[in-house]
Amino acid sequence: MPWPRIPVQDHRLITVAGLHGGAGTSTVTAMLGEQALDAGTGWPVASGWVRPLPRLGVVVVARTHWAGVAAAEDFTQQWLAGELNDSRLLGLILVDDAPRLLEWQRRAVKRLVRKAPLGAHIPWVESWRVQPPDFTKPPKRLQKITRQFHQSAEEEEA
Question: What distance in Å separates the CA atoms of residue 25 and residue 124, rounded to the nearest whole number?
Answer without folding.
Answer: 15
